[in-house]
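Data availability (excerpt). The following record was deposited with the supplementary files.
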Amino acid sequence: MEIIAHGIDLVDFPRIEAMIDRYGEHFLARVFTETEQAYARANRNPVEKYAGRFAAKEAILKLVGTGWRGKIAWTDIEVTNNPAGQPEVTLSGEVQRIAQSLGIDRISLSITHTANFAIASAVAVARSDETQRL
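Predicted structure:
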């Protein structure tokens, strides 16, 4: 496997809380999938979970080199957790198309929180010729 790109983002909770307070369900539906919203609502501190997912989406947009523009939708990126709690990424739509054109095979994601901030680091991985032969 070969690392081909990296993206990182830091989000403060008050920013996300202000967006939720100001735009409510419109903001949540535009940025987060139903699965992501259900995950956040099921937690003690939903804003923390929304901030982590938002940071992850921003980090992924940085690693594909586009930022949020054009035909990209926030919900083209879905962040879930595997049974062990590790975050996983599923791409769709325009973001998936761009990732495929860059040769991205998978994205390794890490999210962490402090009292007021969430940070996400995303690493794009491509299969090397050796890996493809295995």
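Summary of structural features: The chain is about 45% helix and 30% strand.
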